């Protein structure tokens, strides 16, 4: 299960610098002028996870496979992009295949960096949302116009939902915030709307602010904004692991921006991890919160889900405290769970299945 995050924002808010920092190497052009990103940059990073090495040491394997996240750096938007301003909004289609949107807003005061558009984080966010809404209205209008003479379609729940969506979008509401019933939420997916994507907001802050990140409380609407200093994070990305830890300690931070952004993405999408651990490899897997054991097995291979018999499970803490499978089994901590078992965060699992 690959997690894909689109990074969007106005030009020169620090999207590409943040993208480079998250990837830990120079990929995107982060020049100080608008629209330095034309084609979307795509990069895959490993999810930082200290548990993997602990598990690998216990089961005595050298092969570690972490979960991964894909970041997509979308070209900067400006007000009026839908009517051709700046580079237009044709790049918004690159968001459709992503699972969530990371809105980057400017909250730093460097006068040497060209500023486009609004002068405050709230304004930055509103400009981007307006462009996403306009793009979605284009999609909804295309569907409505294409079916206005289609008598059978006019009577469907999908057509009624399209009219409801159009009304909400025209009021400036994001589709994800509309009051929809369960059937409508399922039908909503058929429209592939950008404003139906889960999202979170990252504020690119000054270096001085970053040193007091715990005290940086910025809100946009009802959303708590995640403060990140893209410039500092890029500097961190160029350091060794040991130097990185020391630098983070100097900043008074326990986790890097990459870790906090990924954690926020997991929270936004309702995701969690489980592990498989054996002599061949230790691996982290990503599943939805509330996933059953067969559904978790299906993330590894669809045959595992179809032929699921049971799952042998030990919690991470019990696995570590008892030095692996055998120690946990001896203590009676190895559980045999069936098809209705709901996976817990950080379960260590071996699946039993029929081929």
Structure report:
The chain has 355 residues and is of the alpha/beta class. The chain has 14 helices and 14 strands. The protein has helices at 15-23, 51-59, 121-147, 151-154, 157-170, 182-188, 207-210, 230-237, 241-251, 257-269, 293-300, 302-306, 316-321, 325-330; strands spanning 3-8, 41-46, 64-65, 68-73, 100-107, 199-205, 219-220, 223-224, 226-228, 271-277, 282-288, 308-315, 335-337, 347-353. Strands 2-4-1-5-6-9 form a six-stranded mixed beta sheet, with helices on both faces. A three-stranded mixed beta sheet has the order 3-11-10. The two termini are 22 Å apart.
Attribute tags:
alpha/beta; three-stranded mixed sheet; 14 strands; 21% strand; flat
Short description:
This protein is of the alpha/beta class.
pLDDT averaged residue by residue: 84
Poorly predicted runs of 5 or more residues: 26-39
Please report which band the strand proportion falls in: under 5%, 5-15%, 15-25%, 25-35%, 35-45% or over 45%: 15-25%
- The portion of residues assigned to helices is 25-40%
Structural class: alpha/beta
Q: Whole-Å distance between the termini? A: 22 Å
Side-by-side strand order of the widest sheet: 2-4-1-5-6-9
Outline the biggest β-sheet: 6 strands, mixed
What is the succession of H and E elements? EHEHEEEHHHHEHEEEHHHEEHHEHHEE
The outline comes out as flat
């Amino acid at each position: 299960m690959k997690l894909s995050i689109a990074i969007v924002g106005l030009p020169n808010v620090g999207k590409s610098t943040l993208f480079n920092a998250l990837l830990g190497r120079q990929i995107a052009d982060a020049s100080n002028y608008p629209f330095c990103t034309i084609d979307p940059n795509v990069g895959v990073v490993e999810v930082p996870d200290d548990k993997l090495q602990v598990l690998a040491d216990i089961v005595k394997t050298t092969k570690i496979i972490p979960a991964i996240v894909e970041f997509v750096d979308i070209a900067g938007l400006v007000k009026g992009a839908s009517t051709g301003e700046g580079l237009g909004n044709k790049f918004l289609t690159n968001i459709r295949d992503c699972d969530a949107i990371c809105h980057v807003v400017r909250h730093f005061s460097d006068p040497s960096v060209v500023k486009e558009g609004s002068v405050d984080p709230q304004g930055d966010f509103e400009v981007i949302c307006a462009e996403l809404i306009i793009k979605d209205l284009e999609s909804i209008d295309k569907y409505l116009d294409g079916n206005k003479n289609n008598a059978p379609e006019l009577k469907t729940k999908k057509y009624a939902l399209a009219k409801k969506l159009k009304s909400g979008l025209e009021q400036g509401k994001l589709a994800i915030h509309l009051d929809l019933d369960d059937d409508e939420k399922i039908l909503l997916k058929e429209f592939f709307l950008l404003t139906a994507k889960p999202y979170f907001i990252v504020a690119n802050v000054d270096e001085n602010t970053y040193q007091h990140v715990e005290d940086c409380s910025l809100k946009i609407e009802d959303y708590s904004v995640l403060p990140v200093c893209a410039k500092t994070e890029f500097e961190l990305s160029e350091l060794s692991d040991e130097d990185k830890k020391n630098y983070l300690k100097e900043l008074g931070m326990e986790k890097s921006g990459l870790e906090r952004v990924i954690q926020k993405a997991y929270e936004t999408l309702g995701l969690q991890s489980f592990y498989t651990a054996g002599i061949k490899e230790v691996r982290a897997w990503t599943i939805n919160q509330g996933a059953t054991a067969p559904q978790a097995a299906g993330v590894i291979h669809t045959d595992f889900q179809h032929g699921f018999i049971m799952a042998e499970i030990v919690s991470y803490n019990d696995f570590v405290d008892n030095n692996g499978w055998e120690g946990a089994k001896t203590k009676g901590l190895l559980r045999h769970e069936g098809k209705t078992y709901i996976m817990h965060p950080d379960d260590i699992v071996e699946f039993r299945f029929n081929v």
